[in-house]
């Protein structure tokens, strides 16, 4: 069954300090995601898009380990080498699996058309992306969502390259950024139009209320590589209105959006995207916020830099 399409959502409120309206908050709590058109102004969007292109063109292959980003489908190991595990306080480049020849292993795409994503510390090391992340609007959104001490722990440019941009299977962000209790919310910003042809997101509406976070993506106990383990702590956010799961199969709603749109994604929400078989890229910028007062342990694959995760409520 083809997924249905998301209906129109209210645009971002006027001004930089108003956060979310009551209607928008209710939509987020009910559905587990919120689509906010025109959240990023055209000038900032153009600047970030050009910066993304400059980053893709200027990085060096000379000392690159050619790390591929794998989601772990088809019995392939999820990415977990040292280049990935030590990227929490750096800006690094991860290749699409299909950018390489299946037999020879040689790179068969130009480097600027071969990268899956850039991460994971753009929000501190790149001034342009820092200015677009640690904003009064995002702080007000976090305040409206009830965060006491919101911390930005990772940021990424996801490229979804033409013809080879990989499929991302249904997943929950809390699996990869687990706090006890869960508290992650993704801020996902379209730098280009995201369509069904180039691999837009799809959402299982309301699944955040009926789908517990049952697994975590962690470092192996020997520190080399990654694995998925069961969640021993809370599986839903604190004081959360949980529903009994009576669905045999989730129905996914297409989230086609225009460039400049902000999408908020609850950490327990099931969402996915299909492979980009079109001739157009689907560049987006995303960062994730967690509650700084919740437990974040040393098993998580992403470990905080020496200064700690970035405060969204700037002093």
**Beta-strand level of the residues, as a percent range?**
15-25%
In the predicted model, the low-confidence regions spanning at least 5 consecutive residues are 1-17
| Category by helix and strand content | alpha+beta
Beta strands, count? 15
Series of H and E elements: EHEHHEEHHHEEHEEEEEEEEE
Biggest sheet descriptor: 8 strands, antiparallel
Mean pLDDT: 91
Number of helices: 7
Binned, the helix content reads: 10-25%
Q: Evaluate the radius of gyration.
A: 18 Å
Separation of the first and last Cα atoms? 49 Å
Net shape: globular
Note the main attributes of this structure.
single chain; 315 residues; 8-stranded antiparallel beta sheet; 17% helix
Protein described:
The termini are far apart. Strands 2, 3, 4, 5, 7, 12, 14 and 15 form an 8-stranded antiparallel beta sheet that branches. The chain is an alpha+beta fold and 315 residues long. The chain is 17% helix and 22% strand. Strand 9 and strand 10 form a beta hairpin.
Summarize the structure.
It contains 7 helices and 15 strands. With 315 residues, it is an alpha+beta fold.
Secondary structure layout:
Layout: E1 4-5, H1 22-31, E2 33-36, H2 42-58, H3 82-85, E3 91-95, E4 115-120, H4 122-125, H5 127-133, H6 136-144, E5 150-158, E6 168-171, H7 173-176, E7 185-190, E8 201-203, E9 215-219, E10 226-230, E11 253-255, E12 262-266, E13 271-273, E14 284-291, E15 310-311
Parallel strand pairs: 1-11
Antiparallel strand pairs: 2-12, 3-4, 4-5, 5-14, 5-15, 6-13, 7-12, 7-14, 8-11, 8-13, 9-10
């Amino acid at each position: 069954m083809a997924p249905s399409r998301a209906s129109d959502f209210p645009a971002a409120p006027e001004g930089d300090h108003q956060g979310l309206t009551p209607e928008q908050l209710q939509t987020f709590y009910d559905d587990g995601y919120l689509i906010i058109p025109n959240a990023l102004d055209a000038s900032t969007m153009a600047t970030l898009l050009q910066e993304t292109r400059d980053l893709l063109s200027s990085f060096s292959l000379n000392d690159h380990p050619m790390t591929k980003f794998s989601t772990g489908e088809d019995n392939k190991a999820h990415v977990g080498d040292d280049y990935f595990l030590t990227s929490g306080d750096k800006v690094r480049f991860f290749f699409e699996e299909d950018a390489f020849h299946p037999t020879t292993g040689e790179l068969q795409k130009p480097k600027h058309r071969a990268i899956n994503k850039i991460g994971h510390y753009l929000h501190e090391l790149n001034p342009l992306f820092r200015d677009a992340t640690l904003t009064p609007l995002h702080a007000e959104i976090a305040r409206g969502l009830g965060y006491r001490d919101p911390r930005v722990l990772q940021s990424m440019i996801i490229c979804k390259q033409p013809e080879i941009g990989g499929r991302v299977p249904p997943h929950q962000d809390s699996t990869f950024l687990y706090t006890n209790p869960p508290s992650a919310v993704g801020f996902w910003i379209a730098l280009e139009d995201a369509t069904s042809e180039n691999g837009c997101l799809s959402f299982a509406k309301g699944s955040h209320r009926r789908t517990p976070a049952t697994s975590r993506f962690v470092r192996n106990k020997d520190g080399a590589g990654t694995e998925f383990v069961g969640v021993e702590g809370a599986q839903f956010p604190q004081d959360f209105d949980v529903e009994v799961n009576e669905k045999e199969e989730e129905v996914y709603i297409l989230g086609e959006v225009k460039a400049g749109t902000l999408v908020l994604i609850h950490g327990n929400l099931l969402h996915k995207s299909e492979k980009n078989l079109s001739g157009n890229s689907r560049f987006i910028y995303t960062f994730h916020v967690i509650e700084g007062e919740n437990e974040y342990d040393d098993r998580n694959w992403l470990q905080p830099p020496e200064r700690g995760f970035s405060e969204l409520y700037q002093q």
